[in-house]
Amino acid sequence: MSEPVPDLWAALRRHTSARIGLGRAGDSVPTARLLEFEAAHAAARDAVHTPIDVAAIRAQLGGLPTVTVRSAVRDRSHYLRRPDLGRRLDPECTGLLEARGYDVAFVITDGLSARGVHDHAAAVLLAAVEQLPGWSVAPVVLATQGRVALGDEIAERLGAAFVVVLLGERPGLSAADSLGIYLTADPHVGRTDAERNCISNVRPPEGLGHAAAAGKLVHLMHEARRLGITGVGLKDDTAALPEG
Question: For the segment 64-121, what is each residue's pLDDT rounded down to a tens digit?
């Protein structure tokens, strides 16, 4: 009987969630690696199709006022096939947003991973709001079936100078719970992605921590207000900010 072959990749695999050194069994990958892949694929599919729990997020936000709206898509299948409609408000919801000239509007929406939103959005938002004394903050908008650009129409109707959209990122096979944060100045329908700043891969402990993400966001917001721009003209120079 032959001796088991030691896994020479085990030491390196402890430092990354990437699939490295899979090995092989005959003409295929080992059973253990195949099962890991199938589990990751199932987690990614679950992240995309799990509905956002608006009530749970509202509870996480404590006493912050909230408004719930939906995009113009009918259901999740429609959302995946019509990304253009995920960027627009359902006409029946427009009357829920009253323009009062806020400094910033925060929008939480599902994107492609409700799990990422459930795990991280409220914690980052609360940490950021604490660091914004003197800013008038609109009621937090909880939007279902939304994409990033949905925030532009929401903020335009609220009369907000800036919009921060927190949504679940497209899941990969090693991360199904990432949160993305998008900051846009002078938001209105027709803004492009080049006019936004993005903070991605918020998912401690493997990704960016909540406090660090909030710190980066607040720094970008102050700089955006000072310079009057977001997007490619506004650089993130907060790489050295410590966690916490």
Answer: 999 999 999 999 999 999 999 999 999 999 999 999 999 999 999 999 999 999 999 9
Nearest by Cα to 128 from 230, 26, 216, 6: 216
Distances (CA, A) of 212 to 106, 113, 185, 217: 18, 21, 21, 9
Q: Report whether the peptide linkage leading into residue 205 is cis, meaning its omega lies within 30 degrees of zero.
A: yes
CA distances from residue 236 to 66, 145, 196, 224 in whole angstroms, order as listed: 29, 29, 12, 11
Contact 71, 194 (CB under 8 A): no
Q: Single out the residue of 40, 7, 39, 35 nearest to residue 23, CA to CA.
A: 7
- Cα–Cα distance measured from residue 116 to residue 178, given in angstroms and rounded to the nearest whole number: 5
Question: For the segment 156-213, what is each residue's pLDDT rounded down to a tens digit?
Answer: 999 999 999 999 998 887 788 999 999 999 999 999 999 999 999 999 988 999 999 9
Rounded-to-integer distance, Cα 242 and Cα 244, Å: 6
